[in-house]
Amino acid sequence: MRGNDVTLDNVSITYPNGFRAVHPTDLTVQAGEFFSILGPSGCGKTTILRAVSGFIEPSGGRVLIGGQDMVGIGPNARPTALIFQNLALFPLMKIWENVAFGLEARGLSRRARRARAEKLLDLVALGDQADKTPSELSGGQRQRVAIARALAVEPAVLLLDEPLSALDLKLRQHMRAELRAIQRQTGVTFIYITHDQGEALTMSDRIAVMNEGRIEQVGTGDEVYSAPATAFAASFVGEANRIDGRVVAVNGDLAEIDTALGRFRARNPIDLGAGDAAMLFVRPEAMRLGHTENGLSARLMRRDLEGAFLNLFFDAQGIELAVHVTNDGQVAIPADGAAEIGFPSGRAVILPAGPLARTGQEMVA
Ligand SMILES: Nc1ncnc2c1ncn2[C@@H]1O[C@H](COP(=O)(O)OP(=O)(O)OP(=O)(O)O)[C@@H](O)[C@H]1O
Ligand SMILES: [Mg+2]
């Protein structure tokens, strides 16, 4: 099996009722890449996948797979396979027959189909389960059968639409590693859809962060986490403290922002200028206790001990600021909770004021 690249060239998608689910989008997924599309419920993830798999045609622009324009090519003729959130195996068929299902139409003999199914079952570590039926397998095992079945038709691109969301947390985490290993072994291009940032961060070569029909940022997990490009990306991926304000000065790569808590200096990746409405974001683990650069006065409201880490929650004039520190026995805060906290300029980012992720959004199934 070999992966193909997938390109969206100015693709927009409007449903028949006039709702524009995807605004004009350019995106290239590299051949053999594990690529995730991450965004909240309703942002347009499945819609993009439907256009790649051929179940809907874009209203504008082109989908190319392996450099070939897919216009007018139906789902069955595309080099793609799709795995849905609610997978359906055939309950009365044996596991190997489920895997081999798509091969009968290709005129393969029963013996050849069985051999191919066994190879794929080995790949998903179910080689000894070929003669069972789906009801005799666990949820995670059934999910792996679905993956083997999708791979049986030798797709160049595997499209996975929240394939783990029906599984419990422990199994989900286990399956992350399994999926990643299967992708590496096969070299098939994976486009993986999820609203779970943990899944996207742990499995993907690159991630597209999507909101309300637009891809707001594409990058590695590290890039998206450490250098978010929009207020939405900063608030959707990982935890972030936010302080609103207005840019007052720019010097080099840094900008200064005036806020209710004082004037702070931070990175300015989007090249905001003086006068622009802005939001400063800083991760809890980038916050420091004591008198530091970008210091401010705050009051400790709550402390959560996480063993090796301490999560401290401060109030600064009504703004909640989280500070995560290692639990090294050195954390000393006066009884009244008053403390100075701050952050290094290089670990904070100033972005255009804009829509934020709703809290708890990632929990919406
Ligand atoms: N057939 C349709 N006709 C009209 N609007 C639709 C149709 N299908 C989806 N939509 C709308 O398009 C938007 C995007 O839907 P889509 O299914 O792509 O979201 P999603 O990101 O996959 O969400 P989820 O995480 O909940 O699966 C939603 O607002 C949805 O209501
Ligand atoms: Mg969806």
Automatic annotation (TrEMBL):
The keyword Nucleotide-binding applies. It comes from Roseovarius gahaiensis. This is ABC transporter ATP-binding protein. The keyword Cell membrane does not apply. One of its GO terms (molecular function) is ABC-type transporter activity. One of its GO terms (cellular component) is ATP-binding cassette (ABC) transporter complex. It holds the Pfam family ABC_tran. Keywords: ATP-binding, Nucleotide-binding, Transport. Belongs to the ABC transporter superfamily. It comes from the Bacteria. Residues 6-237 form the ABC transporter domain.
